[in-house]
Amino acid sequence: MESFIATGLIGISLGTQYTLLALGFTLIFGILGVVNFAHGGFYVMGGYVAYYCNVILGLPYPVAVLMAMLSMAALGWLFEAFILERVIEDHQATLMVTMGFYLVMATAILMIFGAESPQFPFPVTGVWRLGGIYFPYANMIVLGACLAAIVFVYWLVYRTNIGRGMRAMSEDLPVASALGMRTKALFPFAFALATGLAGGTGALVTPILALAPHVGDSVLAFSFLTVILGGLGSVTGATCAAFIVGLIEAYAAVYLGGSKGALTLFALVLIILVVRPQGLLGREVRRS
Amino acid sequence: MKLGLGRLVCGSLIASAGFVGAVSACELKIGVPAVLSGPAAQWGIALRGATEFVAKETMEEKRLVINGVACTVSVKSIDSKYSAEGAASATNAFAAEGIKVIIGPVGSPEVTGFKPVATRNRMVAMVNSFAKNSIGPEWPTVFHIGPGPSGWAAPIIDVGLQRYKFKTAAIVAPNDQGGTDIASVNADIFKQRGVTVTEEYYQRGTTNFAPIVTRIMASNAEALDLASSPAGDAGIIVKQIRQAGFTGPIFRLGGPGTDEIARVAGGLDILKDFLWYEPVYMDDNMRALEQKYEKLMGSVRPENSDFFRWTFAARMMIKAIQAAGTIDNAEKIAAAMRTLPVEDEHIGKGYWIGQKFFGINQEMSYPFAIGVIQGGVKQPLIRAEAVSEK
Amino acid sequence: MNNRVPKSLPAEIRPSLFSGHDWIALAIVSLTFVIPFTSTNPQVLSQTNLILIAATAALGVYIMQRLDLMSFAVPSFMAIGGYTVALLSMKLQLTDVFVLAAAAFLMPALCAIPLGALILRLKGVYFVLVTFVLTEIVQLLLFEAGPITGGSNGLVGMPAVKIFGMDLWDNPHVLLTTCGLAFVSFIITSVFTRWFRSEFAAIETNDVLAESLGLAAWKYKAMAFSVAAGVSGLAGFALVNMLLTAHPSSFAPMSSVNYITYTIVGGKASILGTLIGALLLVSATDYFALSGEMSPGLFGLLIIVVTMVARGGVVGVVSGLLYRLAGQSPPLKNGEHDLGVNGEKGQ
Q1: CB of A116 within 8 Å of any CB in chain B?
Q2: pLDDT > 70: what percent of chain B?
Q3: Which CATH number describes the domain made up of A2-275?
């Protein structure tokens, strides 16, 4: 029983990471209709910015996280406004461009910071224990940050004019533009919001796990899984799916072993998709 | 391949005709298929750094003189991407330039893709990789820069058993060739010493090891071996297993990278009791080699300590070329290499081994070191003598 | 976007099967047969080999593009084809190149039918993501099915393939095998995609409408998926034959991105684009590998620049320019060249 609960806690920690990543990924898809292959790049670069601010410049960790979010939001804004925007109506071109940008980002990190992991510890160490059950305090903080991010995104998307605009554009872009939505301003904003989230996630999660130039690769695969399972473009769906993926991964890996666990996870996702192609909470398929 | 054969015959004719007095410039080009991108980049950077250093050293000190002409040595490195295709295509590019002497590649998939192409193009090579078939009788001109765990895991486990009490151990490694080939060898050696072993494999690309850690904890292992898990992954595993309350000793029987593991894990305190294979015993000789690198190349040596083994390997290759008296006849160079004693000015004497494990006596075995961290404090390295099969 | 009706085309005349681009592509591929006989330069042989394998694999993407579906499944089917060949030659000593090629085509094509029944209902990004997941699953299966696939070590030590009892083992012969496989794949792909081009175009434009007008869209989708799988299988054969090893790392999930890149950067509108894309990008990769750590970044930059500058792919832009030089206006803009969307079928 203890190991069952301990595994559940692991699943929840995994779920928080996946939620933070999937929120941004699904926002970009829902609003811009773009599958952002560079998402992992913003995650890693956010981690490195936080490392640079915290360890090299000696700024307090929370400031470093904030810097990571802001800088990645700025980079995302620039990338959307100057590169992605020009090909935005061709979904395959957006795929190529984001993929290319990911390669450029990963290479830039490797050239600047080198291939080996630097020491970037989470400021809070220590573990809460109860018998065989344990939960590191750092993971609790990330869980808190994740909840805050979910609340923030909901508030933004459902309670503000910007959010209404973004939702309208994701429903029907031509009509929204005809009604006077300023896509030119909202697209980069939405993209920056998502990449800022990714950067902040990197700043929070890489010190718990590891910081290295290549850790963004697997981010993409799991963001994919989460987002298709939840239903592309659905914020609620992505959140639920992230925790489902986290829990399945944890239980499958603990009870079946590392690589069989991954296989189970992929197979389950495949089955769910075949049965329910639009994902758990997805809408009608968006043509893309 | 008639033309290729013809070229080879011509090549050896020219080489043997050299003594007649036709003073031809001697230009040795060494091909280095090195992984320079992705997670394994640091290994390739060490390989490239070592070969470039040896090339410069050879020229400055006129170590390679064939028919009275001091040879120039240049290095061409191509990113082999840690994949079989990457290495095969790099090797073909070397073949196109007539390069016959290869130092590298590093990883198992690369060596797998490299060997058939190298053999087809009659190249002589010094490879790494801990795969069970890194070298073998099918590839007579391929040499191994040093043993894998088959050579050094036993003495390290013995040191561990002297210091700590454990009857069970868990081995964790990635589920590909780079992982399984090492983990299974380590498992056998643990079992020979009466330790019960469970093997855990994870998918490469995993970033959160909490589920694997939970499995290890459930297996009630008293010791852990990280085998060849990449340093970044190994660091997370250590961090998470200590959080889960594991207090036993941790082995790292799969190559260097302890500094990086410590950085990721969060310091030596977290490693606590840790034993690892260190390619070289850092003594004044090694520090002299480091200084020589700095003086010659104008920068500090690549951080990965496989740099040293690659340096010894590249020097050995130069010696074999000198002994063979040809820079482009792979068979002759290989034959000369087999007759040379394993010896390096900085690390000293070693042995040729490999007959037992690979079926061919083409593996260089040098003294190595056992690293120990006890109670979070780094202990002086333990010097281990070169493994010999005699 | 493809619903332009050409101004003067009698509806009852079916235009010639191959377009200019098809002929050029087939001509280039058949010209490569000359290389194994004239060159012994390993670099030339190896590059040609890699380019042809890349182009053949990318045909799998090209075929699915006819239906506006972007497939990440190419490495899965390459793996099925490649491992089939390795198993047949190692376990059953079957080394005849024709038998092996047939097996490399049929095995993935057959596997694709039940798979297609499951996933071809998906469209757009869902199809992209499911094929991506599928590739991950196949990769894991290769590791888990150790007794058959050799697990993480792969299958090493294949015998050389034979043609009419003759060994095809050295560099030029290996390339010759690849040339043959590539040529067959290009013929299959161009005949298949051109023969049904109107049906495909109708489905690409609006499959719901096409279906409601009596076109059995699922049938064409299933055929396309199956043929795409078969062609990928041939590419897998060529790759395994080149390396003499069937190794899981040759079929890594992320390699699907490369094949998609070849097709799109070259120009997805015609088969020539796939070939040119593979030619340019494989050469670029090879060239960039010399700059070590920088190489992925340079490759990324190249993709961005080509995508931004050459909309419709390299072939689209070049043929647009040629038309302009010839003083004509291009028949379709953005390199959407001569897709055979002429409305005489499926409507």
Answers
A1: yes
A2: 94
A3: 1.10.3470
| CA–CA distance, A248 with B225 (Å, rounded to integer) | 27
- Using an 8 Å Cβ cutoff, are A222 and A209 in contact? no
Which residues have CB under 8 Å from B97's CB, separation 6+?
B29, B31, B76, C43
- For A216, the token pair is 């963004």
Structure confidence by residue, pLDDT tens digits, B20-45: 444 457 899 999 999 987 777 888 99
The reply to whether B41 touches chain A by the CB within 8 Å rule is: yes
Query: Which residues pair with residue B77 across a beta bridge?
Result: B32
Question: CA-to-CA distance for B157 and B281, rounded, in angstroms?
Answer: 18
In CATH, what number is assigned to the domain containing residue B203?
A: 3.40.50.2300
Residues B57 and B129 in one domain: yes
Ranges of each domain in chain C: 20-254
B306 to chain A, any CB pair closer than 8 A? The answer is no
Q: Distance between CA atoms of B27 and B59, rounded to whole angstroms?
A: 11
Between CA B218 and CA B211 the distance in angstroms is 11
pLDDT tens-digit readout, A202-238: 999 999 888 988 888 877 778 878 887 887 777 888 8
Quick check: C250 and B83 CB within 8 A?
Answer: yes
Mean pLDDT over residues B340-350, rounded?
A: 93
What are the backbone angles phi and psi of residue B177, rounded to the nearest 5°?
-55, -40
Residues of C in contact with B3 (CB under 8 A): 40
Q: List chain B residues with CB under 8 Å of A209.
A: 207-208, 236
Residues in chain A: 288
The interface predicted TM-score (ipTM) is 0.85
The beta strand positions in chain C, using DSSP E, are: 155-156, 161-163, 166-168, 245-246
Residues of C in contact with A266 (CB under 8 A): 133, 136-137, 140
State how far residue B129 is from chain C, nearest Cα, in angstroms.
Answer: 13
| Partner residue opposite A258 with nearest CB, options B42, B200, B262 | B200
Candidates C152, C240, C291: best to mutate against B (most CBs of B within 10 A) is C152
Q: In chain B, how many domains are there?
A: 2
Enumerate the domain spans of chain A.
Answer: 2-275
Neighboring chain A residues of B236 at a CB cutoff of 8 Å: 209-210
A116/B203 Cβ within 8 A = no
Which residues form the domain of B291? 25-147+282-367
